[in-house]
Model the fold of this input.
Amino acid sequence: MTKKILLGLFLICSIGIAKSDITLKFLESKPQGVARDFYIWQFISDKKTSIKDAITAYELVFNKTPRIQKAMQDKGIATEMPKDIFCKNLTFEELKTQDSECIAYGLKLSDVPKISALDLEMIIQKISPSYPDLLIQIKALSSKDILSAMFEISAKNFGIIFNGLSYSQKLKIFDNAISVKKLEKLANENSPVFNKTLHNIILDSRFNKFKDALAKADIKSSDTNTFFLLGINEVLQKREARALVYFARSKNAAVDPFMRDRALFWQYLLSGNKLFLEELSQSEFVDIFSIFANQKLGFVPKYNIVSDFKNISKKNPDFNVSDPFEWQILKDNVFAISDDEEYKKILEYFKYEKTLPHLVYFLNRLNKYKINYFIRPYEDLIDWKNDDEKAMVYSIARQESHLLPALISRSYALGIMQIMPFNVLPFAKEMNIKDANLFDMFNPQISLKFGNYYLNHLKEEFVHPLFVSYAYNGGPGFLRRLLEKKELFLKGRKYEPWISMELIPYEESRFYGMKVLANYVIYQELLGHKLDLEKFLTQTIIYTKDKK
Done:
């Protein structure tokens, strides 16, 4: 049975990728998903691709991201564009004459308060039968008192309106007294889009009236991250007792061990109660919080770390590790195996040096992430200056791609180091590498070199691994602007640097920095260099002070 399953997997996967000459036929032959979207983006962006073929390819897109929409828009003639792109680029005067679907695509919520009553009535008549939520949003935004109107609609529609407003509009609308009871009612709907609105407001240095109202509310129905950030809001309001309540709720709502450990840590940080630290030290999951707890208490960690495998073949595996489509199909087929014994048997066929990341990826699912794998695949493919360089690269790659060579992200970051397409040619030029292309990023040897080069460049400016990780994820410009505000990593502020790590405005970068830092501590230890996490983190304050 296992051989039949495996044979089927590899027969399906034997579909090599041409690095050039992406054709419509090629795209149509590939499975739907992020990998094909990336190749469609390349195809549409090619000047040789006709508008007709570009439109056909666009219809194959799984997720119409801004990047792929921009490529389609750049092809030229507006009237030949797909409807969603055509409508989004119309002026309001042009848009109002279109049908309801086009209006739904193209109407900017931030424009609604400026639309005349006559035009609003015409739009409402067109959209009312088919777009009830949009109708509600338009009516709220055309109200004389937008803030009051927003608190009378659903949490979902409130969040959509908030996301559609310009920043200046948000500041103006919310610079008014907020009803605590109405805010509490919406928050307890536990709508993901409203929860995200709360996150954005809490992490913004403005919106003080909204945050004051939040501090007076008692929100009992939410998700773990929203409860946590409500706790952070209480910390900023210097209401530690209320913060502890929210951190307890965050812990109780947590499914992800990282979120659970994070909430436990903050219960300790605020209360000083070592019972929280002792509970945290029992975590089987590696993160900066469980590392801190065990170092602080002098305990041997309960978490299990595996960094090496025995009986791993040096031969080539039966599939191309650099082919994104092979990886997509292989993953989907392996995950489709419901029988645990068959699943375990299949994993035997991934015990090759080149497929160690794939083996670990599948083992994580089997072991439900209760084993922490810190492997260093492809380590001998490049030359390293020192162990710090190696620890940093693998810390980033583990978080970026699970160390998988052919991974493509939804933003089209590529390969084991998730290099952004716009960085490939500039990096190649600086590294004196000729004839580099985007598809080279699926080669682990090349991708590791590019990632290592970029990390060394970032280290020169940002020094500390935490800041380097923020810059790698969000871009150096993002981090420069953040530090120039002088609102984070402040000397003398209570709960630093932990509070600043929680106030990074972009969620992905916020968690990314914490997770990369944990990876870095573990990889350094595996390489023979033990770091004191608490002392190591204090260097972020010193670094920021020096930069100012």
